[in-house]
Amino acid sequence: MFKPVCYVLGAGALGLSLALGGCITIHSSSISESSSGGTAVNAEYSDYGILHLTAPDTLTANANAALASKCQSGMISGVTTELSMREWLGIVQYYTVDATGTCK
């Protein structure tokens, strides 16, 4: 009688761990691929995640939007982004994206 209970509990634990397991992805993007002379601009955007289960999914999009707002013409080239993450006690993660580019 003990073995069937162990199998059921083991299968339940396996199913629960598969259901609760998750992946975190950070999407990256760029505004332009070409690079030329102009005025350097930079922007930063930050947001929080919890327990590595949640992560902000619009970090680079918001950083690029902030970067584009700093350029009156709206034409930016040579955009690079850098992601950094700080973690407190394995519970809270603080993600920051720094974006730099050249305004034409």
Please provide a written account of the structure:
This protein has about 100 residues and is α+β, with helices and mostly antiparallel strands. It is built from two helices and three strands; from the N terminus they run αβαββ. The protein has a three-stranded antiparallel β-sheet, covered by helices on one side. The mean pLDDT is about 75.
List keywords for this structure.
104 residues, alpha+beta, three-stranded antiparallel beta sheet, 3 strands, 29% helix, 36% strand, rod-shaped
Q: Helix and strand succession? A: HEHEE
Biggest sheet strand order reads 1-3-2
- Low-confidence segments, ≥5 residues, pLDDT <50? none
Distance between the termini: 76 Å
**Overall average residue pLDDT:** 76
- Helix-and-strand structural type: alpha+beta
Over the alpha carbons, how many angstroms does the gyration radius reach? Answer: 21 Å
**Rough shape?**
rod-shaped
Instruction: Give the tally of β-strands.
Output: 3
Main sheet summary: 3 strands, antiparallel
How much of the residues is beta strand, in percent? 35-45%
Range of helix content: 25-40%
Total count of helical runs of at least 4 residues: 2
